[in-house]
Amino acid sequence: MGSKKSSRRRFIQKGAAFAGLAATPASLAIAPRAAGSQTRGSAVPDMNSMEYVLYGERSRFVNAERILEGHDHHEVNRPRPDPYRPSAGTPIHDLVGIITPSSLHFATQHHYGIPDINPSEHQLTIHGMVDRPLIFTVDDLKRFPATSGIYFLECLGNRPRPTDKTVNDTHGRIACSEWTGVPLSLLLQEAGIKNGASWIVAEGSDAGQHTKSVPMAKVMDDVLVAYGQNGEPVRPDQGFPMRLLVPGFEGIYNVKWLKTIKVVDQPYLTFQERSRFLGPDHRSSHFIYELGPKSVITFPSGEDRLPERGNYTITGLAWSGGGTIRRVEVSADGGRSWTDAKLRQPALKRAFTRFDLVWQWNGEEAILQSRCTDELDQVQPSANEFARFWGHTVTEIHQGMGSRFGHVNFIQPWKVTTNGMVHNSLET
Amino acid sequence: MGWCTIPWRPSLLAALMSVVLCPVSGAQESSFGVGRLATPEEIRDADTTVGPEGKELPPGSGTAVQGAAVFGQRGCPLCHGPTLIEGPGPALVGEELTGLSYYPVSYWPFAPLIFDFVRRAMPYDRAGILSANESYALTALLLYRNGIIEEEDVMDANSLPAVVMPHRSRYTEPPEDWQPGRPRPWTDERHGRE
């Protein structure tokens, strides 16, 4: 799929380049602007073209891209298997609202690539402890009543580090989309679940056949077999033509390119999940599914610069696998005092919740941070509280102990210096 | 819940009937009728995930000696080193928790899981090419090199599930009563806020 997409991009860029060189120089030329005025009327360059009409493109002045993980990623020194398959994070600094454009949704392939699947040849098999093992095509799924929900999706590896520069680095392995599909409970009802069935094992079509076990209580609650993402078919890097969507659970549960669901009576502890059950500490032996309450200020955040004193609107995102975000507090003094931020609507269950708070910067140093509380009264911990729970120092937590701590959801501080520069202020 | 079918050409009578036939809390178990029955062959082809008890293990067998040969033939030393410990990929022998998310082979709670990993996910760049015999042989090699079985032990669908992993007791069963929307385990354990 990568080649198709990039060839289309190349085509458009080529077309634009030609247009700029010869065809319509007048329409592309930007009229000189009088100081303080906007270009308008006939002076505005015309973007109308067949390409833009058939499939829209963003403004050439908008250039947010996914954040490639690798060169200054914390795992840079790890040996790269060959072939190297890049992963990239969401540029959450540039998001507005709560929906992540599908083209900017973080893309972690679990290192086995993105299969190029013809949907007319793809099918979903449901078998195991069922009365009627069934096979569904994509068209079959679309005959069922669909459900749509706006849900965040976060990689368990979304961990901030003191060496990270921007909020894209610290929190970029997350996105929030409207997902559309069939509740898996409906499909299991068609197949008929046998007594004693308590788990499903879901398997994808990628080369590594990514496989995850999901408890039946969750399946019957809100798990989707999703074929739609933000109003269009699920993108290939998100599991085209269908994926499992397990709202609020660790990202790795959301099996892409879904091809098989086996109904079973125990978790299957597949290779993508085995490490979580045998940690060095009894607490990591828990089966912890739902991600904890987490929030981060996206503006002002690392590498931003406040040009002058005065009013700014602090904004950010909050989410919790446990449900709805009930409260977000913001501190400008490193956590000594807190003020409730305004929760922008809609504030949905297991979705990004956008918060805002007007703040006047007086030119002095400030430490900005947010903490959230969800509907279960779970409160986002500080880094110290998080480390204390695990019986480690903050330094040890940062030193890459990996996924054995489960979801890392501690508070992210940003320091505003007197010259207006903003830096990651996580203590090492 | 049962399915409520809306007639293609609605009429007052049909609408009334659908109300009568489809109460909100209906106990109907009628099928929606979409999707086809899978054949035994299709189920067999789809049933590739091997669980902790090894019920799905395929026919075939292998020993550590055979595994050592497969290890070289399939290019495994490129990532794991000639004697399974040099890297640059994860060391496959030893008890050391080496950071990040790699866990030593010996820490896996059930031996069939090793077979499942090897067969479906290795070699990294050509996942899926290993036969059942090759996968049994590599599994035997890993178990032997970690001191869990003898070099001549034959691993197959019967013997592999019977292997007792050394850290089996560290495995904690999942909570049976878990329901969505329960607070995470540590919420109650934390002592106040800073």
- Assign an overall shape of chain A: globular
Number of strands of chain B: 3
Q: Please give the order of strands in the largest beta sheet of chain B.
A: 2-3
Using the CA coordinates, give the radius of gyration of chain B. Answer: 25 Å
State the helix count of chain A. 9
Average pLDDT of chain B works out at 80
Specify the CATH architecture of one domain in chain A.
Alpha-Beta Complex
Let me know the largest β-sheet of chain A.
Answer: 5 strands, mixed
Helix proportion range of chain A: 10-25%
Give structural notes:
The complex is a heterodimer of chains A (428) and B (194). By secondary structure, chain A is α+β, with helices and mostly antiparallel strands. Helix content of chain A is 16%, strand content 27%. Chain A contains nine helices and 21 strands. In chain A, the strands form five sheets. Chain A has a five-stranded mixed beta sheet. The longest helix of chain A is centred in the first third of the chain and has 22 residues, at 2-23. Chain B has seven helices and three strands. Chain B has a two-stranded antiparallel sheet with strand order 2-3. Chain B is globular. The chains are: A alpha+beta (428), B mainly alpha (194). At the A-B interface, strand 3, strand 4, helix 6, helix 7 and strand 12 of A face strand 1, helix 2 and helix 5 of B. Strand 4 of chain A pairs antiparallel with strand 1 of chain B.
List keywords for this structure.
heterodimer; A: 428 residues; alpha+beta; Sulfite Oxidase, Chain A, domain 2; Immunoglobulin-like; five-stranded mixed sheet; five-stranded antiparallel sheet; 21 strands; disordered N terminus; B: 194 residues; mainly alpha; two-stranded antiparallel ribbon; 3 strands; globular
